[in-house]
Amino acid sequence: MACRLVPSTGDRGLTKKRGMTSARIGKLLLPLGLIMSVLAAIAVIALLVAVHEAGHFLAARLQGIHVNRFAIGFGPILWKYQGPETEYSLRAIPLGGFVGFPDDDPDSPIPPHDPNLLKNRPILDRAIVISAGVIANLLFAYLVFVAQFTTVGVPETFNPQPGILVPQVMSETAPAALAGIRPGDVLVAANGQPLGTTDNTIPDFIQLIKDSPNQPVQLTVQRGPRTLEVAVTPQIGADGNAVIGVQLQPNGDFGYRRPKHPFEVLSLAAQQFQDMLVRTVRGFIMLITNFNEMASQVAGPVKIVEQGAGLAQSSLAMLFPFTAIISINLAIINILPLPALDGGQLAFLLVEALRGKPLPDRIQENVMQTGLVLLLGLGVFLIVRDTTQLEIFQNLRQ
What we know:
By secondary structure, the chain is an alpha+beta fold. It has eleven helices and twelve strands. The protein has helices at about 10-60, 125-150, 175-180, 200-210, 260-290, 290-295, 300-315, 320-335, 340-355, 360-390, 390-395, and strands at about 70-80, 85-100, 155-160, 165, 185-190, 195, 215-225, 225-230, 235, 240-245, 250, 255. The longest helix has about 55 residues, at about 10-60.
């Protein structure tokens, strides 16, 4: 019997099924990648919480102050370990944490007059413990930049070309996105003035945007072989300056080079840290002084995770600056003199230093509980607002 090497009908059917299976796998990989990006963003937030609480914990233990709990997260306990003095635990909601002291624990075997209880220590010792979380977050942000320049490298542009590259548009609602600018576009002119290749090209363009709040700026955009004319209207950003919501990069072959020496890494990290810290502080000042216009830009945990997931999807290297800016924001938020935050407790210490004695416990508890309720209410509001603004819910409305 002759044998022909021609696929039978069954073979063709099998080939078709295999093709369908590959397509399904491809479709499954997209949400899997998104899930991994979201988990990466949540892991970053949990890490920063751990850094903050570790600052409090280490400042207390290094001074010999009793600590009976160290928790990452809130809610039900997922895992715990009982050390000689301290219970360490991971909890279900990784968006916070706490360090517990036995001062007010009625079941604690430590006598109430023990000199190593936090409440019995001098004001300076307590201030160090309370402020250590903020210091830890700031120090960690700097170290993140050190790690970025050490592992990823120092960004550098080769073969510079005229214009400014837009590697990323920050959000779909950013002024640039509304004007039609896309990632990969090259800005070749602004208000009729060509954008060149000098070191001042990007700073001059940024200054033009800052000088044009709520005023259209005419941009010439190169998109592949096409040249487009668009009008973008800068809006006041979180730092109080007019922005269009894009990242800017010199036009040319972009890459990373190895740092020349450790001092270059430390210097670049210090510069990046200082710039980001200054911008963040200015943003908080604008939020306080111009709350009505800036309130809509306040991001809750859901929005932060969404932004982090988007950056992780585009490039894992982007998690470095994301981690640093969230760490700096966490430090500044906690140092604000608000009840239930580190700054609020430092304010109580300042009053104690001025009065020569602490405020009555009942007053402190009432203020802290009121502040906690307000903060929780704000958190719930931001979570609900940001959740309803997620792309998946926006698509359901359409």
